[in-house]
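Margin note from the TA: students keep mixing up input and output lines. Inputs are the sequences; the output is the structure of the whole complex. Example:
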Amino acid sequence: MDPILLRALLVVGLVAAVLIVGWLLKRRDGAVREVDQDARLHDDHLAAVGLDLTDAKAGAVLLGSPTCTPCDTVKDVLGQLEEEREGFRWVYADAGEHLRLAEEHRVMRVPTLFMVAPDGRILARTSGVPRHDELRRVLDDDQGAAA
Amino acid sequence: MTQNLVTDTDGRLIIDVRGPRFGAAITSTVLGVALIVQGPVGVGLVAWQWLAFAIATFAGLAWSPYGRLFRWVKRRFDLGPPPATEPEGPPRFAQLCGFIVASVALVLFAVGATTAGWIAVGVVLTLSLLLALTGICIGCELYLVGQRLASRRGGDA
């Protein structure tokens, strides 16, 4: 086969492979991941990021970085949740300033969001921009279980 | 040429998020054609791309040839305001990653390791295709990893 044609096919194959990998990565982006039942954010981590869950129904910790553009979108989603839900509190923290938390929970990228129960139990986590209704469902499920 | 450029309160350049993706589409085309034709023309195209990476990395994205082309296209075809903006740091770092791998490719060509050189070009092509086709910027994600390593080295844990 003509080497130019062969290389053109190689490039076409690369485009196809990139489209498939991109589609898989995008599908995971922002998806709510259920975590181990016992996984929790320890009190000293919560204190370090400044999230006080006394008398709260649920909370969230958003790990970001100063150059993280999608973090602003996640902040908007959390702001909306805070408005519509009484007793929901959230904080934003720079992942670079909370490396111990990031390492303990294997945070590989920002934005990473932890949804937590008042006792620090992790209800769910997401990487990327989560969907508003999925976060709402996480909170509903937890409050349904508690009731 | 600094007209229409926006900076944040710290004086850092703020860019239209469509810009890097537009640039990645051109980079992918240039490197894709280079990989197919190879020979002196192919190496010339890689050298041009290396220069474009170098300008964007060392002079800043405001000077990037593809960035300037994007601003012209935006005005000419009235693409409207940016859907979102971002600081230039991560995409500029991604240009640095491209610059490093393209440099490796050119050195490999120079010493006669042609096949290895084209593999390096293939790596840059893959990453720029990923950004152009899906909006995922691996170089930008690496920037965050780098920042984290840097702050760890600073003794902050």
